[in-house]
Amino acid sequence: MEGDMTLTKMDTQRDNSLSYMRVFAALAIVILHVFQYVIEGFNIMGTDKIASISIRNSTLWAVPIFVLVSGALLLDDSREITYGRLFRRYILRIAVVLVCTLFIYELVDAIIYKDTIDMHFFLKGLKNLFFGTGWKPLWYLYMLLAIYLMLPIYRLAAKSMSAKDSRYLIIVLFIFQSVFSCVEKFTSRKSGFYICVYTVYTLYFFAGHAIYKGHIRFKTIPAVILLIISSVANVILTIMSFKLGLKGVYGAMNNYASSIVVVQSLCLFSLLLKLRSEKTGILGRALLAVDKVTLGIYLVHLIILRVVIYSMKWNPFKYGIYMTFLLAFGIFVVSFIIARVLHMIPLVKRFI
Hints:
Helix content is 74%, strand content 0%. The radius of gyration is 20 Å and the shape is globular. It contains 15 helices and no strands. The termini are close together. By secondary structure, it is an all-alpha fold.
């Protein structure tokens, strides 16, 4: 969710496609969070819960798409990123956004639940900041900080890798960060084998660069087939895990390290890269405008959703599952408008 990626005239076609992907993924993330919040906020059960979780899991590719796009852009050796630029534009920006957003979210909760704002409020905020125990979706900002801090090393590695090296890295990371992770969650036992890289986002980051540079190529028809199979498998396994009580299956697939989600995300990213046109057009310009504030949309939509679910206690499921989709789209539009207005404020514009 990085709205700071500027486009150059040399890169308009492919960079525009990356921008369109971010907008597409931002909408999917709003849908994911709306269904998640509704399930948790109103204790949705039975068929409605299965349908909602299936929809939620069908949008898990959204965050990986953002990381894939970041890898394609930030690991490009034609893009100059000095240490000064890295700390001023990337690390400091996300650190400020994380701190400010966390305390804003804490303030929203205090208002909703009528808590007292005192020294305990600030101490609680500092504790949540360090331990990452604030609002769950803030994990994305922690992950961005981790990637940015390692970016100089990642860029050196990407620059020195041949296509063969790149493919080898992706295969190794896929096995250890995704396949083994799924097996461990399915069996509830830790494997004795491991790779010295912490999370699956390194895989997505380098895979975005590898696919973007053509080191890894997905032919259109096989990619479409794999995308369909992985998407259908995601839904079927979600339904089976609930109907048959297969907690291991659900644990193995209900996360971004799921091999199904990895395959789904890489195929979708590859296919969307191919869908670029020479002309931007009205729709393209509109999408580029949205792309500028995707981080703002991400941060704002959580507050709106929190207010609707926990303060107003409005349950869209009373009107059917379609109303939940309408709520998600409405929150996305309102979040864009608010983020766009905030983006007009010079100081705020530097960060979102």
